Amino acid sequence: MNAPSIWPRRGLYLLTPDDPDTDRFLARVLPVLADGPVLLQYRNKAATTADRRRQVEALLPACRALGLPLLVNDDWRLAADTGADGAHLGQDDGSLAEARRALGPAALLGASCYDQLDLAERAAAAGASYVAFGAFFPSGTKPLARRADPRLLAESASLGLPRVAIGGITPDNAPTLVAAGADLLAVIGGVFEAPDPTAAVRAYRRAFDPLPNE
Ligand SMILES: Cc1ncc(COP(=O)(O)OP(=O)(O)O)c(N)n1
Ligand SMILES: Cc1ncsc1CCOP(=O)(O)O
Ligand SMILES: [Mg+2]
């Protein structure tokens, strides 16, 4: 694990797209990394187990060169085996406390809390580095995702952990979630389904750093 003790707690948290073809997957992801995401999550539900490992191993040197922390979705063991910076776990992805014990104190460990403050409280107690809520808007990537109320973002502030918002976030609706208390905006389709993914990455940055008249 090479997680920095101080990691970026505010900005675009980019998640990779589902793509079964490794060459195409990397050709889609690598070019947007330099343009402003502050965290990257490897999430590719369309890849085989062997390809998942290959793809994490291919992303890691690029992330290292940019100082961009890389988390692995679902599978903290793959994160441990590849030396990634951490993992993101949902309700079906195993024990957060076990992952924390295995990965150590420096690892970045994220927890899906959906629409439930009590899950966030439990995740914090189990050693999460951040808590994630959502979906806040309809998501083309995950149309059946549970929907969450933006008020959860303010209600979870007292946990003292960065709060991640996810689900259908676009450059247009991003500012409302930042205003509601989101520290990190987790995005897939808004970048990878955009006609110009690099321009889309830059557009999300504006939610955190608006122009003077905005
Ligand atoms: C930052 C972030 N938030 C939520 C999720 C969703 O995790 P999960 O519920 O385990 O669903 P899948 O991503 O595994 O489909 C996430 N991955 N990242
Ligand atoms: C993994 C996940 N969990 C809730 S919504 C979602 C998908 C987010 O993707 P998009 O940004 O395309 O809506
Ligand atoms: Mg999961």
TrEMBL record:
Its cofactor is Mg(2+). GO terms for cellular component: cytoplasm. GO terms for biological process: thiamine biosynthetic process; thiamine diphosphate biosynthetic process. One of its GO terms (molecular function) is magnesium ion binding. Its EC number is 2.5.1.3. InterPro entries: Aldolase_TIM, ThiamineP_synth_sf, ThiamineP_synth_TenI, TMP_synthase. 2-[(2R,5Z)-2-carboxy-4-methylthiazol-5(2H)-ylidene]ethyl phosphate binds at residues 139-141, 168. It catalyses: 2-[(2R,5Z)-2-carboxy-4-methylthiazol-5(2H)-ylidene]ethyl phosphate + 4-amino-2-methyl-5-(diphosphooxymethyl)pyrimidine + 2 H(+) = thiamine phosphate + CO2 + diphosphate; 4-methyl-5-(2-phosphooxyethyl)-thiazole + 4-amino-2-methyl-5-(diphosphooxymethyl)pyrimidine + H(+) = thiamine phosphate + diphosphate; 2-(2-carboxy-4-methylthiazol-5-yl)ethyl phosphate + 4-amino-2-methyl-5-(diphosphooxymethyl)pyrimidine + 2 H(+) = thiamine phosphate + CO2 + diphosphate. Binds 1 Mg(2+) ion per subunit. Mg(2+) binds at residues 74, 93. 4-amino-2-methyl-5-(diphosphooxymethyl)pyrimidine binds at residues 41-45, 73, 112, 142. Residues 12-190 form the Thiamine phosphate synthase/TenI domain. It comes from the Bacteria. Pathway: Cofactor biosynthesis; thiamine diphosphate biosynthesis; thiamine phosphate from 4-amino-2-methyl-5-diphosphomethylpyrimidine and 4-methyl-5-(2-phosphoethyl)-thiazole: step 1/1. It holds the Pfam family TMP-TENI. SUPFAM superfamilies: Thiamin phosphate synthase. HAMAP family: TMP_synthase (MF_00097). Condenses 4-methyl-5-(beta-hydroxyethyl)thiazole monophosphate (THZ-P) and 2-methyl-4-amino-5-hydroxymethyl pyrimidine pyrophosphate (HMP-PP) to form thiamine monophosphate (TMP). Belongs to the thiamine-phosphate synthase family. This is Thiamine-phosphate synthase. It comes from Arenimonas metalli CF5-1. The gene is thiE.
